[in-house]
Amino acid sequence: MSLIERDYMGxxxxxxxxxxxxxxxxxxxxxELWRLYGKKRKTIFDKMKIRKLxxxxxxxxxx
Length: 63
Description:
The chain has 63 residues and is mainly alpha-helical.
């Protein structure tokens, strides 16, 4: 098998940047979710943000 035939070599620079940025975005969402889960007193805005982040994570997992 040549290097060109490998999957990771077929990706362009833009595809790798897009994948990296989406991975970083996902990690940031997970960090924010855990911070909100850990709060003792959650406001209604915290609860709304938790629902929004959970929904985004589910959509991201489906793709």
